[in-house]
Amino acid sequence: MKNTQKQNNSQITQKDLKQAYSLVTNDLFNSLVKAKTNTSIPVGTYGFIGSLTKTEHKMKSGLDKQTYVFYKMRFRMSSKLKQELNKILEKKYR
């Protein structure tokens, strides 16, 4: 069984990777568009990488005195990802 798994992994083509990337990107895009304001969208399985939070903001322009409404996306990384990135920084600057 191990040999077949190694063979299957070595047969992944650039086309397969592009299709997978496209699928994941489209899914994230649709999740962000459909998400309600102030809701978190997990990134990765059960938020393993982190989460994105969609918030709505208003700003009044000082130039034309109009009020503009826009969305902001905030990324909050998971504690596990944060620990791994900190390990990399520690190794780099020691």
The radius of gyration is 20 Å
Helical content (DSSP H or I, runs of 4+)? 40-55%
Count of extended strands: 3
- Structural class of the helix and strand makeup? alpha+beta
Question: What gap, in angstroms, lies between the N and C termini?
Answer: 43 Å
Low-pLDDT stretches are none
Shape: extended
Q: How much strand?
A: 25-35%
Main sheet attributes: strand count, strand direction, barrel closure: 3 strands, antiparallel
Order of helices and strands: HHEEEH
Number of helices, counting only DSSP H or I runs of 4 residues or more: 3
On the 0 to 100 scale, the average pLDDT is 88
Question: Widest sheet: strand order?
Answer: 1-2-3
In short:
With about 90 residues, this protein is an alpha+beta fold. Helix content is about 45%, strand content about 30%. It has helices at about 1-10, 15-35, 80-90; strands at about 40-45, 50-60, 65-75.
Give structural notes:
- It is a single chain.
- This protein is α+β, with helices and mostly antiparallel strands and 94 residues long.
- The chain contains three helices and three strands; from the N terminus they run ααβββα.
- Strands 1-2-3 form a three-stranded antiparallel β-sheet.
- β1 and β2 form a beta hairpin.
- The chain is extended.
